[in-house]
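Lab channel / #folding
Pinned by the channel admin:
"Please post every new chain as: sequence first, then the structure tokens as a reply. Keep commentary short and put observations after the output so the thread stays searchable."

First post following the new format, from NK:
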Amino acid sequence: MYSNGHHGAGGDDNGRTDLFVPGRLCLFGEHSDWAAEHGLHNGYCLVIGTDQGLSAAAKTSDRFTVETLLPDAQGRPTGRTRQMSCPWQEDMLLESAKDQDEFFRYCAGVAHQVFSRVDGGLDLRITSMDLPLRKGVSSSAAVCILVAKAFDTIYQLGLFPHELMELAYRGEKLTGSQCGRMDQACIYGKTPVLLTFQKNMDIRVEPLFPAREIQMFFVDLAGHKDTVKILADLQGSYLRSAKLKEALGGENERLVRSAYRALTAGDAMRLGELMSEAQEMFDRLVAPNSPDQLASPLLHQVLSLGEIAEHIHGGKGVGSQGDGTCQFVARSVEDRDAAMEKIHRSFPDMQCFPLTISSSASQGRKQLAHAR
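Reply from TO:
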């Protein structure tokens, strides 16, 4: 049906279009997207794109071919590549999407969703990545958005961002993934957005424009997490657990509303305090429903590291949580750099990544410069 093996870099770049998709950092509201599908409470989350992401080159083809860099056991790039190539046929794409042993099944799932909209296939080569994989920063959603965006660009489909999000979401769900709907918000890049989820309703997306710049950073904990297990545990417990429903319902709404105000005001101190409060709530009400995965010893070691206390306003886990990634609000650029250095010194295997949430004024200047 397809060829699937390891290859070196190469290929003719003529006629290719360059693309970039960032990862997604969930600042607040993890798990509230899928919980909202039960109809008991609206889901709310605040997300922002990372500086890191996936770069690729795409062109038309009479097949569906994807080549990507391979990660190591920690989810970091190795320089090796892997490729899938299958005929541009709807049944072949569906079979690949349903094959749990297929490395590229998410890509095939998105291609299957796009099939009726285009008159040919796609050749997509992921040329670089600096996004931590399998760490809660939506690397799988970034790949799905990348495939959808490639089809949209190459075939000039003229799709809106929310339509690309829907294609990516449906493509990933086709594989059997239990992903929620917030992950695809990486398509909005570095603009922070508020997402509102309601049962059987389209996602409501509202961009935020902070009054002041906020310095953050996130940390690849160099640990292990099983997102599939976390989602299965929490989704299996949701309707039976009053505490879990409280956490992903009323408590989440309260925290996200407060964080929305802090982020809009550019109030880094308040934002950090709310992150620490959100983590305490998560540990108390959510984590007991997946005790093996959400004990998160590495996460809590870093969050409680005394050496960085003077440099941060607060922090919390990321995405589905577990020992994947954590995030912090720093007091300044200098404090951010100092905290990252101290974490790396204490935990040499961990990687730190800076993240600046730009103010509305600086966003306007960037847009004006780009227009010129």
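NK: The chain has a mean pLDDT of 88.
TO: also worth noting, The chain has two domains: 3-206, 210-363.
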